[in-house]
Amino acid sequence: xxxxxxxxxxxxxxxxxxxxxxxxxxxxxxxxxxxxxxxxxxxxxxxxxxxxxxxxxxxxxxxxxxxxxxxxxxxxxxxxxxxxxxxxxxxxxxxxxxxxxxxxxxxxxxxxxxxxxxxxxxxxxxxxxxxxxxxxxxxxxxxxxxxxxxxxxxxxxxxxxxxxxxxxxxxxxxxxxxxxxxxxxxxxxxxxxxxxxxxxxxxxxxxxxxxxxxxxxxxxxxxxxxxxxxxxxxxxxxxxxxxxxxxxxxxxxxxxxxxxxxxxxxxxxxxxxxxxxxxxxxxxxxxxxxxxxxxxxxxxxxxxxxx
Length: 307
What we know:
40% helix; 15% strand; 10 helices
């Protein structure tokens, strides 16, 4: 690999076991020893979390096996949105590109190889605004090409971008501010023609950074590049009530994927949306939406019985 490797930024808070799993998996990557790592540790939101944050901070000070490790300890609680936005902006302004992980993104051994190769391959194709290494769709056959589409998946982090793309990022403060920058056609496009009801997240306060990034990709006519199989999986849900409940009653959770060990990825050079992949994504989100309705109905019924 001729070009300089992108730095990796890891955002952590109070989950020690999850953080260890993320770091240990990244250390096993083939490019780990040549990679600069920056760890942003958010401060405790309240007294209850101070001990957990302290344990995470003690652990990250022991991390090695990378080219360098730089730790940024927040003095006050930034919350995940501000922590990620400001951290990505700081590093990308200095290095021009960045690979992002959160404290629940466990990576495969070729994760860094794929991300750096993709960053190099698509660097001068500015319509490509986002590189993702997670997918929960399954393309037919032994599909080994990158997927070009509008959808910026980033579970557990596992994504990357460049400075001239991230410069287009706007963190919307209100639902109306975000909706005002979109045409009706763009709103339909973002929600995958009705199968992915993500714009309802604009009602949250603060508005999640990732829906803002998605909106900014669409409003700039951008596309994203996805690995054909997952090089990262989310380990932050495995001990969660919702995740376990979903698995038990509704089948395997869509975020519960197998990590890929395929190093021979073909980089698609036709920068047009993959219709087959979008069709599969719409089908999957429709299925998830239906299962969530069933889940909500079950929870509501159980709750009503306890009254």
